[in-house]
Design a protein that fits this description.
heterodimer, A: about 45% helix, about 15% strand, globular, B: mainly alpha, two-stranded antiparallel ribbon, about 0% strand
């Protein structure tokens, strides 16, 4: 009997050892799957992390970036959920609005955001609305009292350039006219310059240089915040009823997890812990911070647990809220 | 101003900047030659390397790379009929036809010389436009951009085939292109159109697999069927002889080259039109230079004007594309968007400051384009004999290599097997279009311009209601579109009138 116990104890003792050995990445190659083509913000962040994350992982593996564009990132998420092995050698990063796609039942979704092994998020995005500086409205209060339509350019449903002003218009009754179809937020900026439109919504990161230059003025922001726009009023605070507030909150919820990083579902707890620690250290790594500053990237760390909490929150909404939400918001970009 | 102009040159000529430019040229050279692998992707991949460089070095590297991609892309297009870049497909029509006649050397000579002229004109336009750049770009609002797309379509549809029947086919092919452009999530209601329930089609059809299929597959099939080398029975020694002839052709058609270069610059300046349009517009214009129906028939069968026009436009657009990027901080293309990221990395804020405080840096960009092109064209001329000789290699040795490159090239678009499928499907479409004598150019242009046309029409109506129709530039462009459609009829009438006068 005794030797059996001893063997069992030995076997149990070996388990964490084996796992610890498994989490050593010496000589291995880790792939970051990005749900977009090269060139955008998600891709650039992944490439930046790929240079610094190895320094904080045991065994300093080689990190490579693989672009898997299509379906606004759904293809990459499906791959991470169904195909990628949970061995710690594949990380995924994709569209922050994927929980919205799952929530509103978009065709082709074959993942559950709450079942991924969450590493965390590398950035917040604050959506703001900015209008041309030469317009008479100096604050959101003044804009609310506007008699004439203020024209807002957008890239299309599903993008924050569209959904944020849409809710301001439909739920808060601000007199906005949304003109959609611009091919990029840069295109809208040009339309602002030639006074074809009066302003645009978008991430603070992308609008900052135009605010600094005095072309546009920020008036209102969504819930998630970052340095520079904390003082702006928040859209939800103007909501007349809990339903409107819930819809606005739901739209902006994923913005806290703006650069999500996940491991496939079923990844062992040890590997997840190794990645979470490395990720947290990397984002505070002075070398990365200096680089991000140069590139005008704002990196903000959100832990895996917090990210998962946001996913659960978004996906546990009652049906009537979801139905109401789906009337306004479509998944995209 | 002149100070800044010279300062800019000196900046590029510093040994470090110059060395980085050479490195960039080396990378760009190969990227251009390889089909599918595009300039934008490569720029994104190279961006991390510029962290520790000075601004001028970084731009010498990035822009040096970017500005030679189109030049060497032309080479692949001419030699193999495989678009080296999405932007160099138009040169295939006559360039590859010349290669098949055993005139690869002459075609390459003409393409390279016109590329150089185009690059110089584009850079000159950039330099000259600096004082007036802001009003210039702001003239073109959404209504004007919509009309430009229409002019472009009318241009290609009416010019890419002859006679009433040809014109009809041109417009039908253009319509098919417009239809294909509708595939994907629409930007007004967010509804998925014609996506066949597949996520792959959600973001629309990508240009590269379609182009590669339409143009490369028919040429490969043709090569297999003929069972000879690309140049057929032309003796190998003869093929590379014409290079000087090609250079002379550029000077013989000097004004055409200049006009096509200006078309390219204009397309480059106009944000949203996209580089793939430039060559086609120039090709359309080149076919207009045919004076008689017989001459017109020669286009598509190896008329050198069909080579030097697109060649000039493709490189001149780069100078133009820098204009909105520099002046407004608003990129005119994907490549420029990535380059913009480079500006930030280096602590420069693109915008009005680039035209005043950082003017020497801006001019160093102009000089980089000029120098990079001179070096690349020189290099290509040195290699020209070897390159042209490839058209004498037996088809059965060449086809496997080309096929591999073609499919890898289209696969890099989305790293999806569907890319391969799209290439094969459009390969079939392209093959039958060639067999039946339908022009492929309007289809491509419809696909490229379809989204632009749809979106800007929507924006114009939503923003201005009917008033957009009364804008002066819109009216001028409308008149041009009508003129372009009627031009062949007018030409035919003039020919008849002349014939009866002689009789």
């Amino acid at each position: 009997m005794n030797w059996k116990h001893a063997a069992l104890a030995a076997a149990l003792a070996l388990v964490p050892l084996a796992a610890a050995a498994q989490a050593n990445f010496a000589g291995k190659t880790v792939t970051i799957v990005v749900g977009y083509k090269p060139g955008g913000g998600y891709d650039a962040t992944a490439r930046m992390l790929a240079r610094h994350l190895p320094n904080h992982l045991p065994g300093k593996p080689t990190l490579i970036v693989q672009n898997m564009p299509g379906g606004n990132s759904i293809i990459a998420a499906n791959h991470m959920y169904n195909v990628a092995k949970p061995d710690g050698l594949t990380i995924g990063t994709f569209n922050r609005n994927l929980p919205i796609a799952q929530l509103t039942g978009v065709q082709g979704v074959k993942y559950d955001m709450t079942k991924f092994a969450w590493i965390g998020s590398a950035a917040n995005e604050t959506t703001i609305l900015a209008i041309r500086n030469d317009l008479p409205y100096k604050s959101f209060d003044e804009l609310r009292k506007a008699k004439e339509n203020v024209i807002i350019g957008s890239t299309g449903p599903g993008a924050n350039t569209h959904d944020f002003p849409l809710l301001l218009k439909d739920l808060l009754g601000v007199k906005l006219k949304i003109v959609s179809g611009y091919s990029s937020s840069a295109d809208i900026m040009l339309a602002v310059e030639r006074k074809e439109v009066d302003g645009r919504a978008g991430s603070y990161t992308s609008l900052r240089q135009f605010i600094d230059r005095g072309l546009v003025r920020p008036l209102i922001r969504a819930r998630s915040t970052e340095a520079g726009v904390e003082k702006l009023p928040v859209d939800e605070s103007f909501a007349q009823n809990p339903r409107a507030k819930a819809i606005m909150a739901l739209r902006s919820a994923p913005e806290v997890v703006a650069r999500p990083y996940v491991l496939p579902p079923g990844t062992s707890a040890e590997i997840v812990k190794v990645y979470r620690d490395a990720f947290a250290q990397t984002i505070r790594d002075p070398a990365l911070v200096a680089e991000a500053e140069k590139a005008k990237f704002d990196l903000e760390y959100t832990s895996g647990d917090e990210a998962l909490k946001v996913m659960r929150e978004v996906l546990s909404q009652p049906k009537d809220v979801v139905d109401e939400f789906s009337k306004y918001i479509k998944f995209g970009e | 101003m002149l100070d800044a102009f010279i300062q800019g040159l000196l900046l590029v000529l510093q040994w470090k900047a110059f060395a980085f430019m050479l490195l960039g040229i080396g990378v760009g050279f190969w990227v251009g030659l390889l089909p599918g692998l595009g300039g934008a992707t490569t720029l994104a991949l190279m961006l991390p390397f510029v962290y520790n460089m000075q601004p001028v070095e970084a731009f010498a590297f990035l822009l040096g790379m970017h500005s030679v991609v189109a030049t060497t892309g032309d080479v692949t297009s001419i030699l193999f009929g495989v678009p080296g870049e999405a932007t160099t497909a138009a040169i295939i029509l006559d360039g590859h036809a010349m290669a098949k006649k055993g005139e690869a050397g002459r075609a390459l000579g003409a393409a390279l010389a016109s590329s150089l002229v185009g690059a110089l004109i584009g850079a000159a336009a950039l330099a000259l436009a600096i004082p007036v750049v802001r009003p210039l770009v702001l003239t073109f609002g959404s209504p004007e951009l919509f009309m430009l797309a229409i002019v472009g379509l009318a241009f290609i549809a009416s010019l890419s085939a002859q006679g009433a029947r040809g014109m009809l086919r041109g417009f039908l092919a253009g319509g098919l292109g417009l239809f294909l452009a509708m595939v994907g999530q629409d930007p007004q209601a967010g509804i998925a159109r014609f996506t066949l329930d597949s996520l792959y089609l959600w973001q629309g059809l990508d240009l590269v697999p379609v182009l590669v299929g339409l143009f490369a597959i028919p040429e490969i099939l043709d090569l297999v069927v003929r069972g000879t080398s690309i140049a057929g029975d032309t003796p190998a020694g003869h093929i590379s002889h014409g290079a000087l002839q090609g250079v002379k052709d550029v000077f013989r058609h000097w004004w055409l080259t200049i006009r096509c270069a200006l078309i390219g610059t204009f397309v480059g300046i106009t944000p949203g039109l996209g580089g793939a349009v430039a060559q086609w517009m120039a090709y359309g214009h080149a076919t207009q230079s045919a004076r008689t129906p017989e001459e017109r028939k020669g286009f598509g069968q190896g008329d050198v004007r069909g080579v030097l026009g697109p060649g000039a436009a493709c490189n001149s657009k780069e100078g133009g594309a820098l204009i909105p990027t520099i002046a407004f901080g608003v990129p005119g293309s994907t490549s420029m968007a990535i380059l913009l990221g480079g500006f930030f990395l280096l602590g420069l804020v693109p915008g009005p400051d680039m035209l005043t405080k950082h003017l020497p840096v801006t001019f160093s960009l102009v000089w980089t384009i000029v120098l990079a092109n001179i070096i690349t064209v020189g290099l290509c001329f040195l290699l020209l004999n070897r390159l042209a000789a490839l058209t004498a290699v037996p088809g059965h040795l060449l086809v496997p290599v080309i096929l591999v490159l073609v499919f890898i090239g289209s696969y890099t678009t989305n790293s999806s097997y569907a890319d391969i499928l799209v290439t094969i499907i459009f390969g079939g479409v392209g093959y039958f279009m060639v067999l039946a004598g339908w022009p492929r150019a309007p289809l491509v242009l419809g696909l490229v311009l379809g989204k632009i046309a749809e979106n800007y029409l929507y924006i114009s109506v939503a923003r201005y209601e009917a008033a957009w129709l009364a804008r002066p530039v819109v009216l001028v462009l409308l008149a041009i579109a009508i003129g372009v459609v009627c031009y062949p009829a007018f030409q035919a009438w003039r020919a008849r009138a002349r014939a009866s006068a002689h009789a």
